[in-house]
Amino acid sequence: MQGFTTTLGCRSKQTGFTLVEVLVALAIVSVALAAFVRLSSQSIQSQQLLEQAQWAWLAADNSAAELALGKVPELGMHQFSCPQDSYEFICRVLVRESGGDLRAVTVQVYADVHSEHRLASLTTLVLPHSFP
Q1: Residue 26: CA count within 13 A, CB half-sphere
Q2: For residues 44 and 56, what is the distance between their CA atoms, to the nearest angstrom?
Q3: Which of 119, 64, 65 is CA-nearest to residue 89?
Q4: Range of lowest pLDDT (3-7, 57-61, 99-103)
Q5: How far apart are CA 77 and CA 35, in angstroms?
Q6: DSSP state, 2?
């Protein structure tokens, strides 16, 4: 029995990771990735809302310019389609007396006919007659 050695009572060196360590590491990585995906999703949604608001502002500005250069509608509330890019906005125009020869025109832009959430609003003063 002289050439036979036993490792009984001796602890061997551990190499690699245990299953528990690997599972804990995977759990940490998965939580971090889930947080990153959520943040990316919120960022994309915010960017889309900002883009929609910019197009709505352009729709309001274009509608106000068209009214200033053309025939101003009668006093009161008017509604018409004012599409921009791929958005089918609805413009609601309120025309009021402003004193003198001017009328106050407020253009409000909504996402659709039934929407109550205003995306953009612009008020300007215009002459009530059209230019030749």
Answers
A1: 7
A2: 18
A3: 119
A4: 3-7
A5: 47
A6: T
Residues 104, 95: contact at Cβ < 8 Å? yes
Please write the tens of the pLDDT for every residue from 108-123. 999 999 999 999 999 9
Q: Which two tokens stand for residue 1?
A: 């029995």
Give the SS3 label for residue 112.
coil
Total Cβ atoms within 10 A of residue 123: 14
Tens digit of each residue's pLDDT (9 = 90 or more) over 20-38: 999 999 999 999 999 999 9
Q: Is 49 helix (H, G, I), strand (E, B) or coil?
A: helix
Which amino acid, 38? Answer: R
Q: Which of the four pLDDT bands, split at 50, 70 and 90, describes residue 69?
A: confident
**Beta carbons within 8 Å of 82's beta carbon, 6+ residues apart:** 59, 60, 62, 63, 89, 90, 91, 109
